[in-house]
Amino acid sequence: MSLFGWKPVHPAYIHFVWLGLLVITVAVIQELRARDALTAFMSPVMQRRLTAQASFSRTLLRLGLLLGCFVCGVWALTQPRARGVTETVPAAEASADVMFVLDTSRSMLAEDAAPNRLARAKLAALDLMRRAKSDRLGLVAFS
């Protein structure tokens, strides 16, 4: 099975779409029953005064979008792969992108960690920077 040149690694998971259809069908039936029960309980004039219900088309749109999300989730579960050339990167050439996000507010000057939180965070970042060989590092400071 191939869709737009994408081939799933685990095509058996595509059958979870049936579960999604079942869930949406049950939700539609429940919605219809709730509307019928409300109609049997009170008049349409009182319904408009006392309840804020979405229109039926809006409810169907919401359930359709939910089904679309479910289908996309199932497609992601199949782990689709694009056709093309794969490249193996040796472990010696592998690198990571690391961003440090450092809080520089006054609360970081508390001395519950010696000498204080900010100095301890700086030391930890510097230690990791010394160990990183081919990794790319970045720093975001906020207060």
Structure, described:
- This protein is of the alpha+beta class and 143 residues long.
- It has helices spanning 16-41, 44-50, 56-77, 117-131; strands at 6-8, 80-82, 97-103, 136-142.
- The strands form 2 sheets. It has a two-stranded antiparallel sheet with strand order 1-2. Strands 3-4 form a two-stranded parallel sheet.
- α4 links the parallel β3 and β4 (136-142).
- The chain is flat, with a radius of gyration of 28 Å.
- The two termini are 52 Å apart.
Largest sheet: 2 strands, antiparallel
Shape: flat
Instruction: Encode the helix/strand succession as letters.
Output: EHHHEEHE
Low-confidence stretches: none
The radius of gyration over CA amounts to 28 Å
Helix tally? 4
Structural class by helix and strand composition: alpha+beta
The overall pLDDT average reads 83
Fraction of residues in helices? 40-55%
Strand order in the sheet with the most strands: 1-2
